[in-house]
Amino acid sequence: MFDDDADLQAFRLRYREFLHEFAPHGWRAHATTTDATLDIQRSWLRTLAAHGWAAPHWPAEYGGMDATLAEQIVMQQENSRAGAPAVTMFGMALVHAAATLLEFGSEEQRRRHLPHILQGDEIWCQGFSEPGAGSDLAALSTRAVRDGDRYIVNGQKIWSSGADRADRCLLLCRTDPDVPKHQGITFLLLDLRSPGIEIRPIVSLLGSGEFCEVFMTDVVVPVTDRVGEENEGWHICQTTLSTERGPYLLPVVNKLRDECAAMWTMAEAIGTDHAAQVAAGFHAEVAILSELIDRTLLQAAFGKSGNESSILKVYYSELSQRLTTAALEMAGLDAQLAWTEAFDLNSDTFDGSWGLSHYWSWSWTIAGGSNEIQRNIIGERVLGLPREPRPEARRS
Amino acid sequence: MEPNDELADELRASTRKALDDRMPTSVLRGVIDTDDRFDRGLYALAADLGWLGLTLPESVGGVGGTWHELAVVIEELGRSMAPLPVVSSVVLGAGAVLLAGDDDQQQRLLPDLAGGRTIATAALTAASGRPADGLTARLERRDGAVVLSGVSGFVTDAHLATWMVVAAVDGADVGLVVVDAAAPGVRIERLDTTDVTRRLAHVHFDGVVIEAVDVLGGGDNVEMRRELLRRAGVAIALDSVGGLGRVVETTVEYVAEREQFGRKVGSFQAVKHHCANLLILSETSRVAARAAADGIGGARWPEWAAVASSYCGDAYTEATRIAVQCFGGVGFTWEYDIHFFMKRARLSQQLFGNPTHHRQLLVDELRFATPVG
């Protein structure tokens, strides 16, 4: 799809050369615990930063490269090709926090955080969802009450990935309970070392703790850690969330391709036409997904992006679920054995456990706006269908 | 490919306008009630607008365009369901002669085809219409002459064709010959299909004498036949993409108007999610078929042809299942148009190989591409 022109080809070769010289080898064997993985990723991020490759999508004045989308895609492709570690644990910092600060943060906030993010000294997490505010995010009830030049925050957040290792949190709070729910929300930068914070990992259905609950009791947040104006938080968090529409899907497609190849090997071992045809069918759909992402990214590069990314999310996540369901059927009882190895859920390669891939796929159909919400978005914002009547336009 | 594809956009706009003017479903309903299911005047317009010569070289009266533009025309034809033998003439008939014919054969047959003065098709399958089945037409040598006997099944637009390219068993090989539809011994048995927007026929050959100038190929005829079927499959996929686009539009339009319980039914999530699924099927099919059409002749062409042919056939079938459900009771009537798409989708799913067949072709490609070990 993206045929490199001469400039892009030169860019590709420059990055490939850098990877050839500096990308670590054999790191997967050492990534046996979350802490070890974190160390590997941090060390790699620092190497990237030392050579200017850490944040290609940032403006140059903050240490980025002003890289085009095509260049970012090229870097993703080369990362996969070289088997370089992905810096997934710093994703919320490099992508979400940075995008929010670059668009809505003050200059002081950018200078305070962006250099540390670039060096891997700040891990960020997201504090958006609450037990009572999942799909209906704007119904959130964590309160921030203004007290002079600070806010006093009380409430509970949930599904914060990696909060137990994070330094800071992108926090949405209610500052005005007396206006329609979207209009009383404020965006804060929470220092997770502040007194009054308790973080508890949630044991997910995988038996491990990717997600956390964050409890806040009379936590003090200085007003200087507010992003944008008071009660403007809903608008700002849309930017944070929309950054998920970028090239983020490229590594997961790589993983799907890897899974397809593994399924193909299984099908050939089974030896029936039917098994091979099933594998080929998934190969076809992964090729289509990859093409769809390229074309959507290309549209985004030309400023035509929008809610069409919901189509990608639904198609990707359900394809992943269908593929792993079929793989489990082919793999038989062997794939019913519990996985024992440590794993990186955000890896761009298949780690050999169909069970892990299968059960993890629900995180994609539920998180980031469940597929039911995505289908509402497609129906209403893309196809223009009438909205559901909203009896609760005001918060009760 | 550029995202701002002005030339293709213009072609799409003019093609859609011509078909909207000349073949709205109100007119289509009249045409399908006739035995020929054909609008000769519209076909002449198709020639004038250059649809027939789009991919033919200038030397035979074409404009030397690519499948990128032809894809636009085929999509629009699928959108309108206009019963015009464009795919039969251009992709099958002309395609076969360009692929397997020499200069003389091309000069003799193609200028009239590009000008809309003749219509062509190709009979590439056995009586069953399944590409994998052994051919049931055969060539024999009798007293120095080449003679064609047997039958080709489910041939598109044979009843309109001036000539057709026939694939027939020729000893241990496959022969490709041009047959005049009016030649002695050719009998065209018209078929009534549940899809009333098309006309198929079994073509019977009873000792049809083939002149030496009408024998095509001589190279790898088996591969040429395979290539023609590949293109036919992609053409059907593009036709499905056009149909899918219209199915999404008309279904969304209907559920945005229809009221029950004092609300537009499209505001109910159960219906809205059906529509979202329609769009997903439509967008994924579009990407598949266009990637195939743009990649014709390239390194991954056989793979993409199989991807598009297998995926779009299933997607169109599933989308029309959902669409009729969204229309509810009126979707079950002859009066509403949605059932025409539903049946066209199901015939398309079988024509030139069903999705399982195309997945098997993809298996063959993947085996070929995967190094052993």
List keywords for this structure.
heterodimer; A: 396 residues; alpha+beta; Butyryl-CoA Dehydrogenase, subunit A, domain 3; 4-stranded antiparallel sheet; 11 helices; 8 strands; B: 373 residues; Butyryl-Coa Dehydrogenase, subunit A, domain 1; Butyryl-CoA Dehydrogenase, subunit A, domain 2; 3 domains; 16% strand
Describe the structure.
The complex is a heterodimer of chains A (396) and B (373). Chain A contains eleven helices and eight strands. Chain A has three domains: 81 residues, Orthogonal Bundle (Butyryl-Coa Dehydrogenase, subunit A, domain 1), CATH 1.10.540.10; 113 residues, Butyryl-CoA Dehydrogenase, subunit A, domain 2, CATH 2.40.110.10; 135 residues, Butyryl-CoA Dehydrogenase, subunit A, domain 3. With 396 residues, chain A is α+β, with helices and mostly antiparallel strands. In chain A, β2 and β3 form a beta hairpin. With 373 residues, chain B is of the alpha+beta class. Chain B folds into three domains: 113 residues, Butyryl-Coa Dehydrogenase, subunit A, domain 1; 99 residues, Butyryl-CoA Dehydrogenase, subunit A, domain 2; 148 residues, Up-down Bundle (Butyryl-CoA Dehydrogenase, subunit A, domain 3), CATH 1.20.140. Chain B has a four-stranded mixed sheet with strand order 1-4-5-8, covered by helices on one side. In chain B, strands 2-3-7-6 form a four-stranded antiparallel sheet, with no helix packed on it. At the A-B interface, α8, α9 and α11 of A face α7, β10, α8, α9 and α11 of B.
How are the SSEs placed, and which strands pair?
The complex is a heterodimer of chains A (about 400) and B (about 375).
Chain A: H1 6-22, H2 34-50, H3 69-82, H4 91-104, H5 107-118, E1 124-127, E2 143-147, E3 150-161, E4 168-174, E5 185-191, E6 197-202, E7 211-222, E8 226-227, H6 233-242, H7 249-270, H8 273-301, H9 309-331, H10 354-366, H11 371-382
Parallel strand pairs in A: 1-4
Antiparallel strand pairs in A: 2-3, 3-7, 4-5, 5-8, 6-7
Helix pairs in contact in A: 1-3, 4-5, 4-6, 7-8, 7-9, 8-9, 9-10, 9-11
Chain B: H1 6-22, H2 25-31, H3 40-48, H4 67-80, H5 86-100, H6 103-114, E1 120-123, E2 137-142, E3 145-156, E4 163-170, E5 173-180, E6 186-191, E7 200-210, E8 215-216, H7 221-257, E9 259-260, E10 263-264, H8 269-294, H9 301-327, H10 338-350, H11 355-369
Parallel strand pairs in B: 1-4
Antiparallel strand pairs in B: 2-3, 3-7, 4-5, 5-8, 6-7, 9-10
Helix pairs in contact in B: 1-4, 4-7, 5-6, 5-7, 7-8, 7-9, 7-10, 8-9, 9-10, 9-11
